[in-house]
Design goal:
By secondary structure, the protein is an alpha+beta fold. The protein has one domain: Nucleoside diphosphate kinase-like domain (Alpha-Beta Plaits, 2-Layer Sandwich). It is built from 7 helices and 4 strands. A 4-stranded antiparallel β-sheet has the order 2-3-1-4, sandwiched between helices. Helix 3 packs across helix 4. It starts with a strand and ends in a 6-residue tail after the last helix. The protein binds cytidine-5'-diphosphate (CDP) and magnesium ion.
Amino acid sequence: MVEKTLAIIKPDAIKKKTIGKIIKRIEDEEFIICEMKMLHLTKEEAQGFYIVHKAKPFYESLTDFMSSGKIIVMVLERENAIYHWRTVMGATDPALAEPGTIRHAYGFSIERNAVHGSDSPTTAIWEIDFFFKNEGNK
Ligand code: CDP
Ligand code: MG
């Protein structure tokens, strides 16, 4: 099934100048980039985006990190986009991510792990709306 997912290039990957390499990988994986923008989240916006993790011990640090610099958010489309992008990203902890995955190549730590991807169809719709209102899911 052709579907959409939300991808983010996180502040660590932008600081390391890996935007180009990550976008090349996205295109090599046959995703269509439907929407893309660079922005700098406020702490409050980062807290809103990661609201599902509010009770987690890493929430405070994660939302500091995600509001520490610019990010790039994208809507990606292809067959099985959600699962495929998560496979290309690799495990949350770069130390456990398979060779060949983006987090293995560019992640620094379990927090500073270069990229984000939606984890389910419901989450994808919510996350795309968060950044692109109703436009992103069209
Ligand atoms: O991003 P992913 O879906 O793989 O992982 P998550 O469990 O949904 O966690 C969201 C984000 O929180 C991760 O991508 C990490 O940046 C961060 N995190 C963290 O800082 N420490 C953890 N123990 C787990 C996640
Ligand atoms: Mg997640």
